[in-house]
Write a structure and sequence with these properties.
Blueprint (H helix, E strand, L loop, with lengths): L4 H7 L4 E6 L3 H10 L5 E7 L7 H8 L2 E3 L2 H7 L4 E4 L4 H8 L8 E4 L4 H11 L5 H19 L9 H17 L2 E9 L2 E8 L8 H12 L8 E10 L2 E11 L2 E9 L6 H32 L7 E2 H15 L6 E9 L2 H27 L5 E6 L2 E8 L5 H18 L12 E9 L5 H17 L5 E4 L8
Parallel strand pairs: 1-2, 1-4, 2-3, 4-5, 11-13, 15-16
Antiparallel strand pairs: 6-7, 6-10, 8-9, 9-10, 12-14, 12-15, 13-14
Helix pairs in contact: 2-3, 2-10, 6-7, 7-8, 7-10, 8-10, 12-13
Length: about 475
């Protein structure tokens, strides 16, 4: 419409009257953000679904609600219609609606303007901290919704989670970490506030996996842990779960000394609503992308996902001077002989057997992927490089034994072996391309030495002083 929003609001500086269209989770979030602000009056919230979840919230706040959208539009005589339905046809109809002449319509990409306006006015209010973080969280959601086609280095789910954590830390100095749960054995720390992102250890992974499995924790809001989780720089004692359908997809863990203040609780509750809404908008894309990250034959991750995760692990490991990263190449021995004797189906079964044996041999937080053909890779974080030799050799020997002793599904007479090469680098020398070259050299040496064996290339252990 031709009316300048800032001018229209300035002309009615006492209060701005709003009609909210959309009573789903987006409408619920708007009620929480805008209702406490004295400069805004929400006249009504409308949605065609009479059971929309925000209607109950509106009733508790004394705000009128209607499932007759046309009637709500016809009766509205306020300043702004804020459309959060995401329906482009409705947005177009609003701009042409005869009853809305002179009314500001905010929908789609323009919705961010209302949050900027409220944020500017709240800077002069005693509630600036609480309201600012609310707006920061919703701004992150709007930005992610408008720009879904980001690369893996700025994955939407990682982005919106990190933005949310940054907003909380900026306003409350809460310390914590954010964790994505691809599945129980594939947990990824994607953000940290107030502390360095911790490197996985057996103990830390076990505690986090235990939380992923729990079904007695609330889906919205926060819960207190009976036993805090210790990470460098913090004691994480408060948990916030993010669910999608029937799966817990993310965990946020915070350090909150004593009981949370009413302001902290309000922000954490809002964060719970915010991330749940963001996840619902993002995960359909992630589910499609997962199809591109998995190897069809074996079910393990593919080369593309491996290389991306290696980049993430290198970045994280470099922040821990005593840590390191190991990479293993696992190469099936004599695939041509297997194909000649058992056919290509037997060869495929042997390749799948290698994947199963490797996956069962690594630790829960290691990653196994098919690199190409009959070759697999494993990425293994090392907590302390002083122990790298014992760690990688234990895993490598376990792989060899499982591969040669296990039965190949569907081919009881087929036995296979593999050659394994493992290389490791300390945090200060980490280079992904070089690490892959060393692991490849190690597996080549294992094959030249007679196959069915493990070869390692490890840096010399320096004495600590």
């Amino acid at each position: 419409m031709g009316v300048d929003m800032t001018a229209s609001v300035s002309a009615n500086a006492r209060r701005v009257h709003l009609l909210i269209l959309g009573a789903g989770r987006g409408g619920r979030a708007l009620l929480r953000v805008l209702h406490p602000y004295d400069g805004v009056v929400i006249d009504r919230i409308a949605d065609i679904d009479p059971a929309a979840p925000a209607f109950a919230d509106a009733a508790s706040l004394g705000i009128a609600a209607s499932s007759d959208v046309e009637a709500a539009l016809a009766e509205f005589s306020g300043d702004i219609v804020l459309d959060v339905t995401g329906d482009p046809q409705l947005a177009d109809r609003l701009r042409r609606h005869p009853a809305l002449s002179g009314v500001e319509i905010i929908s789609g990409k323009s919705a961010k303007m209302i949050f900027d306006l409220v944020l500017e006015q709240l800077r002069e209010s005693h509630e600036i901290r609480l309201q600012s973080v609310r707006l920061d969280l919703l701004d992150a959601l709007l930005e992610t919704t408008r720009n879904p086609d980001t690369g893996r280095e700025d994955d939407p789910l990682v982005h919106v989670t990190a933005r949310s954590l940054d907003a909380l830390h900026h306003h409350t100095s809460i310390r914590g970490i954010a964790l994505l749960c691809h599945d129980r054995n594939d947990l990824e720390i994607v953000g940290a506030v107030g502390i360095p992102a911790p490197i996985f250890t057996n103990g830390l992974h076990a505690r986090l996996a235990e939380l992923v499995d729990r079904r007695d924790l609330p889906r919205l809001g926060t819960s207190r842990l009976e036993q805090p989780i210790s990470v460098p720089g913090a004691e994480l004692n408060t948990l916030l779960s993010v669910w999608h359908q029937e799966q817990r997809v993310a965990l946020l863990l915070f350090e909150l000394p004593g009981h949370p203040s009413s302001e902290q609780k309000a922000m954490l509750d809002l964060l719970s609503e915010h991330l749940t809404l963001a996840v619902a908008n993002i995960l359909w894309r992630r589910e499609l992308e997962q199809m591109a990250f998995r190897d069809v034959l074996t079910g393990v991750y593919n080369r593309r996902h491996f290389l991306e995760r290696m980049r993430v692990e290198i970045s994280r490991t470099r922040r821990h001077p005593k840590a390191g990263l190991a990479c293993a190449f696992i190469d099936l021995d004599e695939l041509k002989r297997i194909n000649d004797r058992f056919g290509h189906q037997g060869g495929d079964a042997a390749i799948a057997h290698i994947a199963d044996a490797a996956t069962q041999s690594v630790r829960d937080y290691d990653l196994v992927a098919r690199y190409g053909g009959d070759e697999f890779v494993a990425l293994m974080p090392i907590e302390e490089m002083a122990h790298a030799s014992s760690v990688v050799e234990e895993i490598g020997v376990r792989m060899l034994e499982r591969i040669r002793a296990g039965r190949v599904r569907g081919f009881p007479r087929l036995r296979c072996t593999a050659s394994i090469g493992i290389a490791a680098q300390p945090a200060g020398e980490l280079d992904g391309e070089r690490l892959l070259q060393l692991a490849d050299r190690a597996v080549y040496q294992a094959k030249r030495s007679g196959r069915n064996r493990l070869q390692t290339i490890l840096p010399p252990v320096t004495a600590s002083h």
